[in-house]
Structures are given as C-alpha cells and as structure tokens.
Design brief:
There is one protein chain. The chain has 5 helices and 3 strands, in the order βααββααα. It is mainly alpha-helical. It has 2 domains: 73 residues, no CATH class; 46 residues. It has a 3-stranded antiparallel beta sheet with strand order 1-3-2. It is rod-shaped.
C-alpha cells in the first residue's frame, strides 16, 4: 500500500488514478490556454543524479482533486471544505502578519542590545578615577 505522502510523476499518477496522462496534465494546468491547477501541492523537482526536471504529485492531491472517485479514500486523508479553506487562509494571513511584527521587534531589540553593549563597554568612572585623569592644576587640593 502506498503512503499519502508518496510523490508520483505524471505517468505514475495517471496509472495510479486510472486516467490518461493528458488528464493529469489538465489537472496540473499545463494545457493551452493554461488552466488553474487542481493539484496545488504538485511541484517540479530534479531527481538525484538526473538533470531532468519532473513533476512530483502527492497521492493526497489525486484523491482531493476528485480523480479517484472510483477508488476508496485512504484513511488519514484530510478533505478541505470551502469554508474550512477560507478559515485556514485567514489564519495563515494572521500568522504572516504576526511573523512580520515579531521580525521588526527582533530588529529593534538587536539594535538596542548593540547600544547597550557600547554603553557597558564604557565603564562608569568613580570620582577618584576622574580626579586622577585631570591635569595636576585642575585637581582639587582637598582630599576626601
């Protein structure tokens, strides 16, 4: 049995789904005129030791796209409903904005830390040390 995270190329995906390679290409949006993809997690990748770029299509995308209507759905497959998808996209936008805010705060704290290091490197001098640094005619004659 195959794992839902297994990646298939176009030919293997067509064999697995029981459709033609052209159908897989249509679902990828590779036709003219281009269509929107129904396999959102598919990506191009270069196989190790090979210089040819091939498509890597997750099996879960084949099931979620509706190509596998005749086959039973494997356990562990997450189906996204339109309202659930909208909720996840909204949460994703919130997390992205929170990440940007956190990055700005990190930059500010890093700048403040650099300033504090400069200040701490300059030791606070006591009155006795300041007196020894004065020229002899500027020193007070009174001893503490």
């Amino acid at each position: 049995m195959t794992n839902l995270d297994d990646l298939l190329n176009i030919r293997e995906a067509a064999e697995y789904a029981g459709v033609s390679e052209m159908t897989i290409r249509k679902y990828l949006g590779l036709t003219k005129p281009p269509r929107t993809t129904r396999l959102p997690n598919a990506r191009k990748q270069v196989r190790p030791g090979d210089l040819v770029e091939t498509w890597a299509i997750p099996i879960s995308d084949l099931h979620n796209s509706g190509l596998m209507k005749s086959k039973p759905k494997p356990p562990g497959l997450i189906e996204l409903e339109p309202d659930n998808l909208a909720q996840l996209r909204a949460e994703n936008l919130e997390l992205k904005s929170a990440l940007e805010i956190a990055q700005v705060k990190i930059e500010l704290l890093t700048a403040n830390l650099a300033d504090l290091r400069l200040i701490s490197n300059r030791a606070i001098e006591t009155r006795a040390i300041q007196e020894t640094r004065k020229r002899f005619w500027q020193r007070s004659t009174k001893q503490d």
